[in-house]
Task: structure prediction
Amino acid sequence: MDKHFTTLDDFLGTHFIYTYDNGWEYEWYAKNDHTVDYRIHGGMVGGRWVTDQPADIVMLTAGIYKISWTEPTGTDLALDFLPNELKLHGTIFFPKWVEEHPEITVTYQNEHIDLMHESREKYATYPKLVVPEFAQITYMGDAGQNNNAVISEAPYAGMPNDIRNGNYYDDHYQRLNK
Result:
């Protein structure tokens, strides 16, 4: 995708893959002005995926965007995207229970909201594990807003490379060979 980001509308509908400096790989989609979808391909909670996560999405200045949200797990996130520079900075605030029991969250969260709430109440939430990291954007795609095909299945080994190599979506940003 060869696009220069200036407005919030330029950002909305964009699909990203990025790798944090610590090696964790994430896939993230700005579904609309208040919702994000994502898959986690590597790191402490690799294998987790979420759709329709409410988020605060704003443009700080031309081409720079801040997104923040709190998950049902109690994890807080703040992401600063600089897509014109192919980088971002993210800070993840993991509750103690996620640090100690990450396997509970490695699922399609939308089907296990009650389990996330139950775990948040059952286990310690403090002190939080704060993970501030820079990341390099390795893929950007113009999926359009509210495209439910972007994040529609669990992550699998090699998925980010399939996407980057053009072997996952068709010209209309729908799943190939589904």
Observations:
- Strands lie at 14-20, 25-32, 35-40, 49-54, 56-61, 64-70, 76-82, 87-94, 129-142.
